[in-house]
UniProtKB/TrEMBL annotation, chain A:
GO terms for biological process: spliceosomal snRNP assembly. InterPro entries: SMN_gemin7, SUZ-C. It comes from the Eukaryota. GO terms for cellular component: SMN-Sm protein complex. Residues 1-23 are annotated as: Disordered. This is SUZ-C domain-containing protein.
Automatic annotation (TrEMBL), chain B:
Part of the core SMN complex that contains SMN1, GEMIN2/SIP1, DDX20/GEMIN3, GEMIN4, GEMIN5, GEMIN6, GEMIN7, GEMIN8 and STRAP/UNRIP. Part of the SMN-Sm complex that contains SMN1, GEMIN2/SIP1, DDX20/GEMIN3, GEMIN4, GEMIN5, GEMIN6, GEMIN7, GEMIN8, STRAP/UNRIP and the Sm proteins SNRPB, SNRPD1, SNRPD2, SNRPD3, SNRPE, SNRPF and SNRPG. Interacts with GEMIN7; the interaction is direct. Interacts with GEMIN8; the interaction is direct. Interacts with SNRPB, SNRPD2, SNRPD3 and SNRPE; the interaction is direct. Pfam families: Gemin6 (PF06372), Gemin6_C (PF20417). Keywords: Cytoplasm, mRNA processing, mRNA splicing, Nucleus, Phosphoprotein. One of its GO terms (biological process) is spliceosomal complex assembly. This is Gem-associated protein 6. Residues 69-164 form the AD domain. The SMN complex catalyzes the assembly of small nuclear ribonucleoproteins (snRNPs), the building blocks of the spliceosome, and thereby plays an important role in the splicing of cellular pre-mRNAs. Most spliceosomal snRNPs contain a common set of Sm proteins SNRPB, SNRPD1, SNRPD2, SNRPD3, SNRPE, SNRPF and SNRPG that assemble in a heptameric protein ring on the Sm site of the small nuclear RNA to form the core snRNP (Sm core). PANTHER family: GEM-ASSOCIATED PROTEIN 6. The keyword Nucleotide-binding does not apply. It is found in: Cytoplasm; Nucleus, Gem; Nucleus, Nucleoplasm. The lineage of its organism: Eukaryota, Metazoa, Chordata, Craniata, Vertebrata. One of its GO terms (cellular component) is SMN complex. The keyword Disulfide bond does not apply. Residues 159-179 are annotated as: Disordered.
Length: 128, 179
């Protein structure tokens, strides 16, 4: 009798709230685990958790407002190996894994639209 | 991928906020500025550098951070500047009558579009999952469901100007001009 072959499953698609891929899928764990879970101390203590969640929301709101203000601004990305590229900032996904940019000035020419993996970026700057 | 900085957590990061910091990132990058915020999802830092020719914003990705060092605390002026830099513009303070009028218009418009809406104190509650606060613009909607939020915001944006049909003063002018 032939031995059964395990079925390779694709990761679950984004959930209906469009919060990205299923966080328990192997693909997500391997590639995109950037979300930082609650600390061990706060898991035990409800009051601590509340304080942590408040701090988290304050920080995140301010970051999101900053992202909003970045829209359509000229941004310079500093990447590994001292590579610096200019582009017009479009958007970021919620996990801050990719940035969507326009008119990316690469050393070999201008790319009209591009996605930049945040893993490749060290920092980026822009003028307010 | 996760270094010390990324593992600190919101309660530790918030201690660095509104302080001048020096960040070492990647192999040999060093950045200085006032820390505006830390993204709790990616641990990225947002630094502001106030210069004469304008404000330079620097975002350092959390995964690249090697070391964060506090240089100094903000004085009152800098702290105010940091606090007010990305706040939504809330200059309008409308009187209660005007707010009631606006609330009525929005409620009407949503009901016209067959969207269940109830009044709760001075807030409007849509289908139990979204609230609209004063002054009832698209930016005043609050919901954890992005899809509903987007739809309602768009609906409010597409609202026809209120005086087009409700303001009786406009009608005579129209009829006069046609005579």
């Amino acid at each position: 009798m032939a031995t059964p072959v395990s079925v390779l499953r694709l990761p679950k698609g984004p959930d209906p709230n469009s919060r990205g891929f299923d966080p328990n899928s192997p693909r997500f764990i391997a590639l995109c685990r950037t979300s930082i879970s609650a600390s061990a101390a706060s898991e035990a203590d409800a009051e601590e958790l509340q304080r942590e969640q408040h701090a988290r929301s304050v920080l995140r709101e301010s970051f999101l407002r900053c992202l909003l203000s970045m829209n359509n601004k000229k941004v310079q990305f500093h990447m590994h190996e001292n590579v610096k590229v200019d582009a017009t900032f479009g958007a970021s996904d919620i996990d801050v894994l990719n940035f969507q940019v326009s008119n990316l000035h690469t050393p070999i020419g201008v790319q009209k639209e591009a996605l930049i993996r945040s893993q490749d970026v060290i920092s980026f700057t822009f003028d307010l | 991928m996760l270094c010390g900085w990324s593992l600190l957590g919101p309660l530790q990061w918030i201690r660095y906020v509104h302080k001048q910091v020096r960040v070492k990132a990647g192999k040999d990058e060093e950045l200085c500025g006032w820390l505006l915020t830390v993204d709790p999802v990616s641990a990225s830092l947002v630094l502001m550098d106030f210069r004469e020719e304008g404000t330079l914003m620097q975002v350092v990705m959390g995964h690249a951070v090697e070391e964060v060092q506090v240089l100094q605390e903000a004085d009152k002026e800098t702290a105010d500047r940091l606090r007010s830099s990305f706040l939504p513009l809330r200059t309008c303070s409308l009187d209660p009558d005007e707010l009631r009028r606006r609330r009525g218009i929005i409620q009407n418009w949503l009901e016209q579009n067959r969207i269940p809406v109830v009044e709760e104190a001075d807030e409007l509650r849509v289908a139990g999952v979204l609230t609209i606060r004063a002054p009832y613009g698209p930016e005043d909607c609050c919901s954890s469901n992005q899809i509903i939020l987007d739809r309602i915001q768009r609906l409010i944006q597409n609202q026809p100007p209120p005086h087009a049909e409700t303001d009786p003063e406009h009608r005579p002018i129209l009829s006069n001009s046609t005579v």
